[in-house]
Amino acid sequence: MKQREVTDQHNTTWTCVQAYAAVESSATEEAIARSETDSGAVPVVCTPSGGAQTVRLELEKDWLDNLSDDELATAISAAQ
After folding, report:
1. Residue-level pLDDT at 1
2. pLDDT tens-digit map of 29-59
3. Which helix (H) or strand (E) element contains residue 77?
4. Measured between alpha carbons, how far is 62 from 67 in angstroms, rounded to an integer?
5. Pick from 10, 11, 9, 21: which is nearest to 45 by CA?
6. What pTM did the predictor assign?
7. Total domain count for the chain?
């Protein structure tokens, strides 16, 4: 499972992972494909290290490689 960690301006560390990506199977591949929006976005769940609440985002499917830490932190902040 691929994930990313980012720390926001409040020093909260967030661990982000694409929804349904934890298990590798044909059913998982189908769930991932069905969860993709018409615009190509995928659901991403970010879990905080502290007392903040988990955040669900819709990000471009290349977010793991092409979204900067600052952009990811900004998306998390906007979704709170």
Report:
1. 65
2. 655 555 566 677 899 999 999 777 999 999 9
3. helix 69-79
4. 7
5. 21
6. 0.78
7. 1
- Return all residues near 79 (Cβ < 8 A) that are at least 6 apart: 55, 56, 57
* Residue 9, token pair as written in the block: 């301006």
In the numeric block, which tokens belong to residue 28?
Answer: 């998982």
Note whether 16 and 46 are within 8 A (CB).
yes
Bridge pairing between strands 13-18 and 41-48: antiparallel
Token reading at 44: 């991403």
User: Both tokens of residue 19?
Assistant: 């929804």
Domain range spanning residue 61?
Answer: 3-79
Pairing outcome for strands 55-60 and 3-7: unpaired
Segment of 51-55, 61-65, 75-79 carrying the highest mean pLDDT: 75-79
